[in-house]
Design brief:
The protein has 194 residues and is α+β, with helices and mostly antiparallel strands. The chain contains 5 helices and 9 strands. The chain has helices at residues 46-53, 102-105, 146-149, 155-166, 182-193; strands spanning 3-9, 20-26, 34-42, 69-76, 88-91, 94-96, 116-117, 129-133, 137-139. The protein has a 5-stranded antiparallel sheet. The protein has a two-stranded antiparallel sheet with strand order 1-2. Strands 6-7 form a two-stranded antiparallel sheet. The longest helix is centred in the last third of the chain and has 12 residues, at 155-166. The chain is globular, with a radius of gyration of 17 Å.
Length: 194
């Protein structure tokens, strides 16, 4: 059996009581349209704390949290050709959407009526490997350190989507209220993209 190390929440509890437990799991195999990512870094998001403490009710037992994943593609399921083995990718909170509801049809999958979430519905990045549909994996550049990119896979995506939705003119400004320190990281990343 091919096993991997992971941290799982067996029973949500206050974070001070250490609700995460070290476990061994079988290395997941990607299904059709999925890739397996060897995790290099996984950030800690406030949502992970909500899951660990039970603020978000558990959807399944022994969930592996973590949705700010940076890693490399090490296996591909059938039908995946757009992402090559060895590619550096990110895995975010939205694991998959239904693809059929009015929001998905409008390209607003973040509002999907039947979403699945990384580290909540499916095992996340507090493990050595994670599986994700290739359509929900983000290609990442090689140069920034993984720890710098990880927060961009949550708050960074939110900021970037806000920028796109606001239709800010060239050299315009967008204010993000309550965005914390990630605002600086996101602003730097967005600036380099323009």
């Amino acid at each position: 059996m091919n096993s991997m190390k992971a941290m799982a929440i067996e029973k949500p509890a206050p974070i001070e009581s250490d609700p995460l437990r070290a476990i061994e799991l079988e290395v997941p195999e990607p299904g059709p349209g999925e890739i397996r990512v060897q995790v290099r870094t996984c950030g800690v998001c406030r949502t992970d704390l909500h899951v660990a403490e039970g603020d978000l009710p558990p959807r399944r037992p022994s969930i592996v949290p973590g949705h700010e994943v940076v890693g490399r593609v090490v296996a591909r399921g059938s039908g995946v050709s757009e992402i090559e083995l060895g590619a550096r990718v990110g895995v975010a909170w939205l694991h998959a959407s239904c693809g059929r509801c009015r929001f998905c049809r409008l390209g607003r999958e973040n509002l999907c009526v039947a979403p699945r979430f990384t580290g909540y519905d499916v095992d996340g990045g507090y493990a050595e490997h994670v599986v994700v549909p290739s359509a929900f994996a983000y290609r990442l550049p090689e140069s920034p350190p993984a720890a710098t990119l990880a927060p961009l896979l949550c708050a960074g995506i939110i900021g970037y989507r806000a920028l796109l939705r606001a239709s800010v003119p060239e050299h315009g400004r967008l204010g993000l209220y309550g965005f914390g320190v990630i605002q600086e990281i996101t602003a730097a990343a967005i600036t380099t993209q323009m």
